[in-house]
Amino acid sequence: MAITAECGPGDFTYPRGWFMVADATKVQDQPLNTRYFGEDMVIYRGKSGRVYAVSAYCPHMGTHLGRNSTSYVVQDNEHIDDLGTLPCHPQEVIDNMTDKAHLTPVHGSIDMESFLNEFDDHIIRQLLVAGHKTLMSAGGGMMTNDTWYTGPGILQSTMIGEFPSLMLICHTPVDDGVIQVWHALLVKGDGPFHKVRIWYKQFYNPRARAAEFQMRVNGVVETAGTSNAPWPDAA
Asked: Nearest CA to 184 among 166, 200, 196?
């Protein structure tokens, strides 16, 4: 596990910029315990709906604001997957933007046509045109990946090919050499995941509420991208 002093990127222990610290759906009026940038914090939503992130410790008595018998967190995992913490320096993650060699053994890219990096102020971009071992059929041509970081901790990637998709990856320093990671993926042609998750909620709530969730999803949903339901722009 590398730390900033070993990597030597600059004067700061942690990078400056915009970072993800929580899924907005999980931030309620009770404090959510977090730790980022080497500091314990709590995140909560005020009466106005505005979100606050403050030191976890009361400046008067030193009490941890998120550790008391009345605290709770509302869980709703419909939006983004929390992958937990990794013993990794954020610079090692950013290095992947220029690491062409790992694309074949790790990500399955083959027959690379081009690999470009673009640096534009606070944005770094990777443009890859290549085949793929599993995401492109034999003779299916090339897949184009346009991947970019806006600042040091928020990555977005569009993949254009047989399975067009949009990916979001966020990583935020927890301590020096430790990061928290989130991941989300949308793929054109996926079925109605949001309805599946609403349907599944009936089993995590009292039976009296089952109809509430069933009414939101009951019916038939046909996913496009088949011979019976081609894409609207198909010839």
From this structure: 166
Q: Where are the domains of the chain?
A: 4-78, 90-187, 191-221
At residue 6 the predicted structure's pLDDT band, cuts being 50, 70 and 90, is confident
List the one residue out of 161, 169, 217, 215 whose CA is nearest residue 187. 161
Q: Quote the tokens at residue 101.
A: 């060699």
Supply the pTM of this predicted model. Answer: 0.71
Domain 4-78, CATH: 2.102.10.10
Kindly tell me if the per-residue pLDDT of 62 is higher than 60: no
Can you name the CATH fold of 90-187?
A: Naphthalene 1,2-dioxygenase Alpha Subunit; Chain A, domain 1 (3.90.380)
Mean per-residue pLDDT, 160-181: 91
